[in-house]
Specification:
The chain is mainly beta. Helices cover 10% and strands 29% of the residues. The protein has 1 helix and 5 strands. Strand 3 and strand 4 form a beta hairpin.
Amino acid sequence: MFGAPVALGRTFTAQEDSPNGGHFVVLNYGLWKSRYGGNKNVIGSTMQIDGQPYMIVGVIVRVSLRTRGRSWIPFNSI
């Protein structure tokens, strides 16, 4: 991740950010609030990305800078 602090959960572990590390996702604050209603129990649940289940491991804090993504997956998962 780009160093942004998390509001909930965590960012990716080194193992998750490696080839064949699994399907994990970190949400931005806006997506967490709009899609999940700010539910703190979202950590550990899954969301579909391109027809595949991804486990939600964290939520990035609201930042004043405009970010280009609403969710992030490990780079090596691409």
